[in-house]
Structure formats: C-alpha cells, structure tokens
Amino acid sequence: MIELKDLTKKFGEQTAVDHVNLTIETGEFFGLLGPNGAGKTTTISMLSTVLLPTAGEILLDGKPLTRRASAEKRKISVITQEFSMRQDMTVQEVMEYQGRLYYMKKAEIREKTEQLLTFTDLIDHRKKTVRYLSGGMKRKLMVCRGLMTEPNVLLLDEPTAGMDAIARRQMWALLRRINNRKMTIILTTHYMEEAEALCDRVALINKGKLGEVDSPAALIEALGKYAVDLVTEADTKSVYFKTREEAIAYLETIPSEAAHASLRNTTLEDVFVERIGRRLTVR
What we know:
Blueprint: E1 2-11, E2 14-24, E3 29-33, H1 40-47, E4 55-60, E5 63-64, H2 70-73, E6 76-79, H3 91-101, H4 106-119, H5 135-147, E7 153-157, H6 165-179, E8 184-188, H7 192-198, E9 201-206, E10 209-214, H8 216-223, E11 226-231, E12 236-241, H9 244-251, E13 260-265, H10 268-277
Parallel strand pairs: 3-8, 3-9, 6-7, 7-8
Antiparallel strand pairs: 1-2, 1-4, 4-5, 9-10, 11-12, 11-13
Helix pairs in contact: 3-4, 5-6
C-alpha cells in the first residue's frame, strides 16, 4: 500500500503539489489525471525519489520512502516519458546492463531477459539495435527493463505518448497482464480512454490540488451515463442525464432547426472536461 500524507512540493514560490492525501492499495491500477502543469509528473518524481518533498511524506507498506530507504526504493520501478536507452545497444544488451546495475548474477540476468522479452513479444528482436526499433517496441523494452528487478510498484509517466492506435492497444494489453500479477501500477496519461480502459480508480488533479478520486465508472455515473451533444455554428454543448429515457425526452424538446443533436454514452473524457473546465472540487 502507498500512502501520500500532506505531500507538498514547492519550487521557489510556486507550489507544484499542494498537501495531497491519497491511499493506493496494493495491486491497484491507479491513474493520475490532470492538464499540463497539474502536478502529475512531480508526484511521480517524488514517488521515485528523484525529487524530495518540501513537506509531507510517502509511506510504502507503512515505511517512509526516502532516498536512503534502499529496500523500499528497490520495490519501485519508473518508466518515464522520454526514451532513456542507449541507441547503439541491442535489446539484449540493454537488459544485461540493467541487471548488472542491480548486481544480479549472470544466470539470473539471462533467465529474466528470456522471460521478459518473451512476455512482451520482443524475443525475436533481441539482437536488434535500439535505434532500429519502432516507438512501440522501445516502450515495451522500457517496460521490460523496469520489470527486471521484480518491483512491487510500477510508475508509468505517459507510457503511450506518441504511439499509434495499434501500438497503444498492444501496450494496454501488456499492462493488463502485468497488473494481473498483482503489481501496483500508477499511471499518468492524457488519453482519457486509456485511463477508462485500464484503471481501477483515478484521481483528478489540477494546480497541485487533489480533487475527486473514484473509479472511472463511478465518476461517469455521477456526471450522467448519457450525453446529448448540441452542435451549433458557434460551439458544441453537452448535457448529461442519468437515464437514456431522460436523454431521449430532452432530445424531443429541441426544435429541429435549433441545433444538430445526438445521443451517446458519457466517457471519462467528459468527466475530465467538466471537472477541470469548471475547476476541481478540492477535497
């Protein structure tokens, strides 16, 4: 279990993360959602101990997570937005190098490399140089490298950024398989459909402050499961309803010449736009 207690990070006069209190259960797939500059990456950086909190603390299984807490740090692996691998190495060399960094035995490195490359469908590319991998393959390799030490917690900062739709879906399938092994995953993403498809719960964060925390389904239910989009020359407006019958009744009140109207299911993106656009209700 991960506990954030009054977690705060300031850069000079600017507060990037503002007294965040949050509990993430063991084995949970958790999403941090917010606009650019909301504090998501700063929070991930504190969870990985790259940044130190200005105030507050992080507990991992009840123990403080600090740079000196090597046993706790080893339980966490982070995968950043940027590709952070040497381009002139082969896939297998990247894995071997990662194992050596953690003083793993040669036989263990070989065994784990074989397992992970097979698990991520990279085994046939083990001798390929990193610079010749597709973007999706590079992301998979970063996941492999992150899993080399068998962490308990995987931190993913925009793991599918820049991927095409097919590669993104492949990554989703991979992350589900990892989470099925009871590994805790914390994800930041700008793709709302990604968070809706993967996460058990999500937290909305804006200007460093934590807002609503709940499952995607519960957040959608609270807003209204059905949306009516009204499209005019000036703008598009969405109105939300608890039941399909209410939405249809509303549609019948709209004059045909007033606007183009359509009925659809509400998504997590609607929740994000409504909550962030109208400011978060901060806990």
